[in-house]
């Protein structure tokens, strides 16, 4: 009789975190750590059965999986005693229990479903026939109801089309006020292109666009109708807000300074600021410095936001190469950072760190043979190593914030053509 491949199904879930970061080639310091995946890959399923087996003391249960041509066999057993037998093939499903074999043809399943549908139709017909004749609508009433539904559906469709035309017309009228040749300056020099915003022209275009929109009667009717249905603001309320904040908004827009410079080598810098420099109010600034090399698949981005003549209150950094990825965001004493090394498109090692107001809140570190996570309420760590006896040992340790620990050990080893897993806590 063929030997059975013994393994504990539940451990697949426990070791996923470690296996996810295992080196694809399996040639690292712990080249045999991904023993489950390697064992399944090397197993000839055409000549060997697969059994998922769980044993505890003298008790054992397993599920034998066997492929025989077009037949798939599933045999559950308890303490070596067969509990049943399921066989699937193109004809149907064979079920065996207590010495009896039942064939459930796929065609039979289809027939049963059709019979159920037929029975439901008959029940509905009986319900309809049980309704008193005087309670049923006449043919004329039915036609009138159908006609009213058709009229209502046509009216809804016509209204939807009219609303779409209203919105698209308003949007086109708004966008047409911002023609690039009116609001942008373009300069080319020594392989660089500089694009600057004409803030005065932009403010004028914005004033004209919003003034025209606030005088659109079709748009007002649409907004009021939707407000009545959804409980939103009426169009008159938007008009009052625009009149109230019009001059302040335009004054802020006129203070905008925006410049983008793009070089031939992929270097792109951007500067944006808003606020009147001679006023008592602070000037808000946003600067971006980006370098992209398409040939080597390398990209670096740095962005900062803050008030002029002050330290930025937000800094963002991103670096991507074929072999690494890093991302960092800083705001005062708080920050989040991600760093990973990449091999063949897969992360192999790295860390994630989050600090809130100077206090470390979360740390995650991982490599080909370990994973460590620590948070405010505790931590989890996993590791894999080869024992003195040659077993591959996965260890999971959980620790609470008050120092309590719990651990699980999973030992994998091969016994002939079987893979055995032992669970210890």
What does this protein structure show overall?
It is a single chain. The chain has about 425 residues and is an alpha+beta fold. The protein is built from 9 helices and 23 strands. The protein has helices spanning about 10-15, 15-20, 35-40, 105-130, 140-175, 180-185, 200-215, 215-230, 235-255, and strands spanning about 50-55, 60-70, 70-80, 80, 85-90, 90-95, 100-105, 185-190, 190-195, 255-265, 265-275, 285-295, 300-305, 315-320, 325-330, 335-345, 345-355, 360-365, 370-375, 380-385, 390-400, 405-415, 420-425. The strands form 2 sheets. A 16-stranded antiparallel β-sheet has the order 8-9-10-11-12-13-14-15-16-17-18-19-20-21-22-23. Strands 1, 2, 3, 4, 5, 6 and 7 form a 7-stranded antiparallel β-sheet that branches. Strand 12 (about 285-295) and strand 13 form a beta hairpin. Helix 5 (about 140-175) packs antiparallel against helix 7 and helix 7 packs antiparallel against helix 9. The radius of gyration is 35 Å and the shape is flat.
Helices, strands, pairings?
Layout: H1 11-14, H2 16-19, H3 35-42, E1 50-56, E2 59-68, E3 71-78, E4 81-82, E5 85-88, E6 92-97, E7 100-105, H4 106-129, H5 139-175, H6 180-183, E8 184-189, E9 192-197, H7 199-213, H8 217-230, H9 235-254, E10 257-263, E11 267-274, E12 284-293, E13 298-307, E14 314-321, E15 324-331, E16 334-343, E17 346-356, E18 359-367, E19 370-375, E20 378-386, E21 392-400, E22 405-415, E23 418-424
